[in-house]
Design goal:
The chain is α/β, with parallel strands linked by helices and 316 residues long. It is built from 10 helices and 13 strands.
């Protein structure tokens, strides 16, 4: 299976900024295009006071910092230039949606105003192809799924039924709890299936694509969960992708580019499970020949060899 989509993460809180401008991003879009990536997904249009575009709403409501570059405008320009589709991520206030006291209505209201602003400013771009709901749920996150439903209805009505993507996690041994401690134990597959059967039923007709993050569970268990995800998505008419993480959750320091053999195993498991597409988090940091991580340069070369059938075998 080939990677044909990637997140774009320049409003982050757990990986470094590369401080790129148009020249650097143009070079990276060329590298994406060269290996067959045709879809880019902005992971969030803003986080707390950091924003990707000059949002009057967020400057007024959150005292947001003025960005030096209009990233949404630039990404759309580059997506048009290289014939790619662009999905726009929604705003993340930083308020924890997994807490019982999370206030759904004010959060939805703010996100709605920001999305209206984005659509009015950028919606005419031919590259604007869909939306990404930025909350990364992992199961029984009731508040977030309610946000999903409310936001999805509004976005579809506003933008003429453009597709909506989510990328939830799996409650695996490598996932974190709210105290940023690894869970250490992977959810029973039957419990995962029961939880997501309920969630997908509630999102049917609203969410078009689900790309589960594949890094939370042990690689040897991943095929089980991928097949469950595909079965449930088929049941509810949702397109099932994989979000194949190109960073390594097994290292003692978060986060470095993943070992190529691990990424290959995950891609092969997704293909075996019949998933329709693979996207990654996240090309520019962890797979790009332009990345600040030199290990990513090697990963790009190994992936090129893989898709081009150029891997040679050596024997002692």
């Amino acid at each position: 299976m080939r990677i044909t989509a990637t997140f774009l993460d320049e409003i982050s809180h757990d990986i470094p900024h590369q401080n790129w401008g148009l020249e650097e991003w143009d070079r990276d879009f060329q590298a994406m295009k060269a290996i067959g990536i045709d879809t880019v997904v902005l992971i969030r249009c803003g986080w707390k006071r950091q924003i990707t575009f000059p949002s009057e709403v967020l400057k007024r409501e959150k005292s947001a910092f003025k960005p030096s570059i209009d990233l949404i405008g630039m990404f759309l320009y580059l997506a048009e230039k290289y014939g790619m589709k662009f999905f726009c991520g929604t705003y993340d206030s930083g308020n924890p949606w997994w807490h019982d006291d999370y206030q759904v209505e004010p959060e939805v209201q703010l996100m709605t105003e920001v999305n209206d602003e984005i659509w009015a400013k950028y919606g005419k771009s031919p590259a604007f192809a869909g939306w990404y709901l930025s909350q990364e749920i992992a199961g029984d996150d009731t508040h977030a799924t309610e946000c999903y439903r409310k936001m999805a209805r509004h976005l579809k009505d506003m933008s003429g039924n453009l597709p909506i993507l989510i990328s939830p996690g799996i409650k695996g041994a490598k996932a974190y709890n709210e105290n940023m401690e690894k869970l250490g134990k992977t959810i029973d597959p039957a419990d995962h299936e029961a939880q997501w059967d309920k969630i997908m039923k509630s999102l049917q007709g609203l969410v078009d694509i689900i790309a589960f993050q594949d890094g939370h569970v042990e690689i040897e268990l991943l095929p089980i969960f991928l097949k469950i995800n595909k079965k449930l998505c088929d049941k509810y008419g949702i397109d099932c992708w994989t979000n194949t993480e190109s960073f390594d959750r097994d290292m003692p320091i978060d986060f470095f580019p993943i070992k190529w053999d691990k990424l290959r195993c995950k891609l092969e498991a997704a293909e075996e499970a019949g998933l329709s597409r693979a996207m990654t988090f996240e090309f520019s940091h962890f797979m790009s020949p332009n990345s600040c991580y030199i290990q990513a340069h090697g990963l790009y070369k190994r992936y090129q060899e893989y898709i081009n059938g150029e891997i040679k075998e050596f024997y002692l």
